[in-house]
Design goal:
The chain is an alpha/beta fold and 390 residues long. 52% of the residues lie in helices and 10% in strands.
Length: 390
């Protein structure tokens, strides 16, 4: 099959040709955008789930929807060697610069001045120039060095400017669990204040299954945020995610081939894209048949092993790999910390630093007290394959 026309695109956060199975979440986001425009500030939206389920894709879809309504939009990824202050400040620059003009309203001018002070709080050598005279404008003060104080001021002023322009401010943060504790606390407090005073701002956070617990520990009222567990697609939706992009290219799937790839992928959107891409590239003719699917499944699994799984496995130290391998006995369903320690002939407490390091690296999480599980679906099978020939 022509690889140029291949409609499947595996990759972190890459938009699929057909965003299947997320209609409810997308409709809910549309609703809360409209509520903000009416002056009603809803709770932050929190997307959480395993890696590969499409959280980043959904978050980016939220961003595009808000941008299509002419909102001021800032989407950032936590970590990446930048503080939240730096990431959010830089993300706000371009949308504010697009709005800057001498005839701007009072609130927008104030927001521009506050943004300049926020920039100075993390980059004293850097300069922004919005092309308007702000010397007589009230504002600024977002440079105290205290993250909650400074972030609260810039969010409040930019949200007010957005409302003055007949729109809202959307702040979207991916990999939220990787933020520092003080940054998470500040975000929760600011989101709470925004809801109390109906600021024209909407937050969306995405992260691993541990994210709800992390937010709740930061501020108890974050338990009332709008939590959305993002999971693998149901079998019929997994089939749709394969069929619809192919039909757009006038290519069909034979039923048995479709069933094989949908089953092999276990409904995980990332895996569907990887298997779909590999199957398409190896197929000789329309329709895609069972032989094509078997070859594609093998090629797709090899690609996942070399990239998706390998990238995470290689981040673990030798001691951490021993622990991960001991967990693999239980598959992907989770392991009792005590049982893992018993398999390795040591006391559970002795593995505390190893568990903490694996959690910090985002390789495992604790779904409940005394239990650990992989953040990556299929990790147990990968580890089994890794050691099969040794």
């Amino acid at each position: 099959m022509d690889p140029v026309r291949n409609p499947y695109s595996p990759g972190a956060g890459r938009k699929p040709a057909a965003l299947i199975g997320r209609d409810r979440q997308r409709a809910n986001w549309q609703t809360v955008l409209e509520r903000v425009e009416l002056g009603r500030s809803p709770q932050p939206v929190v997307l959480y789930g395993l890696r590969g389920v499409g959280k980043t894709v959904l978050l980016s879809d939220f961003r595009r929807t808000a941008a299509d309504r002419n909102w001021i939009v800032a989407q950032v990824e936590a970590g990446a060697d930048r503080t939240l202050r730096e990431a959010l400040g830089e993300a706000l620059h371009d949308p504010l610069a697009d709005l800057a003009r001498p005839s701007a309203g009072r609130r927008l001018l104030q927001a521009l001045k506050t943004a300049l002070s926020f920039k100075a709080s993390y980059d004293t050598a850097g300069t922004w120039n919005f092309g308007v005279d702000l010397s007589e404008v009230a504002g600024g003060g977002a440079d105290t060095g205290t993250i909650e104080t400074d972030l609260r001021k810039v969010v409040r002023d930019v949200a007010a400017a957005a409302a003055e322009e007949g729109r809202g401010l959307a702040i979207l943060i991916d990999e939220t669990q990787d933020l520092r504790a003080d940054e998470i606390t500040a975000l929760c407090a600011i989101a709470h204040a925004a809801g109390q005073d109906d600021w024209a701002v909407l937050f969306a956070f995405a992260g691993l299954p541990s994210l709800p617990r992390i937010l709740a520990e930061a501020k108890s009222y974050s338990e009332r945020f709008d939590y959305e567990l993002v999971e693998a697609l149901e079998p019929h939706l997994a089939r749709d995610a394969l069929v619809e992009p192919a039909l757009a290219e006038a290519v069909r799937w034979a039923p048995d081939a479709l069933e094989l790839i949908a089953t092999q992928s276990r409904g995980y959107p990332y895996f569907l894209q990887q298997y779909g891409q590999a199957t398409w590239d190896g197929a000789l003719a329309d329709p895609i048949d069972l032989a094509d699917a078997r070859a594609g499944a093998a090629a797709g699994r090899a690609a996942l092993d070399a990239g998706f799984f390998r990238a995470r496995w290689d981040r673990a130290t030798a001691k951490e790999k021993v622990y991960l391998r001991a967990m693999a006995v239980d598959g992907d369903e989770g392991s009792g910390s005590g049982e893992v320690a018993s398999r390795l002939g040591r006391r559970p407490a002795s593995f505390g630093p190893v568990r903490a390091s694996l959690i910090a690296k985002g390789l495992i999480y604790a779904p409940e007290h005394g239990v650990v599980a992989y953040t990556v679906p299929g990790m147990a099978s990968f580890i089994d394959r890794e050691y099969a020939d040794r």
